[in-house]
Amino acid sequence: MQRAARIGYAGANVGNRGDGTPEERAGLFALTLLALAVGALAGVLGAAFRVALQAGDAWRNALVGWAHGHAWVGLLLVAVTTAACAAVAAFLVRRFARYASGSGIPHVEAVVRGELPHAGASLLPVKFFGGWLAIGSGLALGREGPSVQMGACIGSVLGALFRRDADDRIALLAAGAGAGLAVAFNAPTAGAVFVLEELVRRFDTRIATAALAASASAIAVARVVLGSAPDFTVASMVPIGFGQGIPFVAVGVIAGLAGVAYNKAILGALAAADAARGLSVEARAAVIGAAIGVIAFVAPELVGGGDSLTQLALSGGPLATALPLVLALRFVMGSVSYAAGTPGGLFAPLLVLGAQLGLVCAWITGGDGTPPAAYALVGMAAFFTAVVRSPLTGIVLVTEMTGNLAMLLPMVIASAMAMLVATLLADPPIYDSLRERLLRD
């Protein structure tokens, strides 16, 4: 049996351990060296993308600030600017790299499974600049989608450049994807876990070694630019005992129901965009961009990737009366923005919604002595699990992004309930649905 059958998604056996013949050990060593190089390059590109997005956020906020002093003219300018940025991003995808649309993770998964071809190096500038235009102008999309697909592309290109066989090229692609996620959220362990849990969905020593090496080198390089502090600041918390963990069962159930609804909203928005055949891809993106621009003018803190909203929730959150409106708006904005056909991911918007959902649950309990921020943190992991159906990735990701270990038990409880509810309702994981949709196009 060829090694591809063991590494591939459909294989039933645990992958090769890498401790067989001297040739296999030498191959694993060479693969690890290449993975380190892939990670370093993904770290440079991912860090540059994050810095570019920070600049984009600053420019957008400056534009909105100026627009507030010019009434209707200012509103029109913000809407037109956002519409133009979204349209250009959609044009870049349509004209130069069709697989750069959306998150890119469904394409990476399809390549791992042998269902679609590798993307060429032309995807890199499209994903970078298209993602910068879309997210920087205010669409509710995440930076991790572009970072993951760019990292995967780097792994694939380097594998081909160094004439590695098909199996090693897939391993490097997966390792690059994990490195991209690690840089996007400053979460090296989550990057490796994502590769094993979401991309290949089982343990393989060669891929695990490559993923760990790539994530480590990516973070080492990126932290030179971005620093080593966690993405979010959370006050110190006392670990939750079993009795205090019971309310988080309800958090998980609610997150499971909300996750199913969000998956359907994303797919529904995509179907609605497909049905608008009278409009070009660029025109559809412009319409969505204009609507986001209006929201940016009225409530600039609600647009974009949403890190500021997540941080606000983890710091105690807005007034309870604002929670339903914020949650509803971001729910609609996330699904509609994804239908624009521009580069941009789902993870960051999921974390925003999960944090807001957690605060709503804290408000419902009426204050049981547990800090609202604890509910927000648990809500992030549970909602991520409900939508993506990768609980370990979600738990590790939230833990690394916040530097908080005290809420591990509640996160496990809530994620288990969210997983159960979403599975019992027969709702497929979002990336499975998006991958199947991609294969039909």
Overall description:
By secondary structure, this protein is mostly helical. It has two domains: 21-226, Clc chloride channel (Orthogonal Bundle), CATH 1.10.3080; 242-436, Clc chloride channel. The protein contains 19 helices and no strands. It has helices at 3-7, 22-67, 71-96, 105-112, 123-137, 144-161, 166-185, 188-199, 205-226, 242-245, 247-275, 281-298, 307-314, 323-338, 347-365, 372-388, 391-402, 408-424, 430-440. Helix 7 (166-185) packs parallel to helix 9, helix 14 runs antiparallel to helix 15 and helix 16 (372-388) runs antiparallel to helix 17 (391-402). The longest helix has 46 residues, at 22-67. The chain is globular, with a radius of gyration of 21 Å. The protein starts with a helix and ends with a helix. Residues 1-15 have low confidence and may be disordered.
Structural class: mainly alpha
Distance between the termini: 33 Å
Q: Assess the beta-strand content as a share of residues.
A: under 5%
Pick out the low-confidence regions.
Answer: 1-15
Global mean pLDDT: 90
Major sheet summary line: none
Percent helix: over 70%
CATH-level-2 architecture of the largest domain: Orthogonal Bundle
Global geometry: globular
CATH superfamily of the largest domain, by name, is: Clc chloride channel
Instruction: Estimate nothing, just give the exact number of structural domains.
Output: 2
Question: Could you give the order of the helices and strands?
Answer: HHHHHHHHHHHHHHHHHHH
Please state the CA-atom Rg, rounded to the nearest Å: 21 Å
Could you please say which CATH topology of the largest domain applies here? Clc chloride channel
- The total strand number stands at 0
CATH class of the largest domain: Mainly Alpha
Q: Count the helices. How many?
A: 19
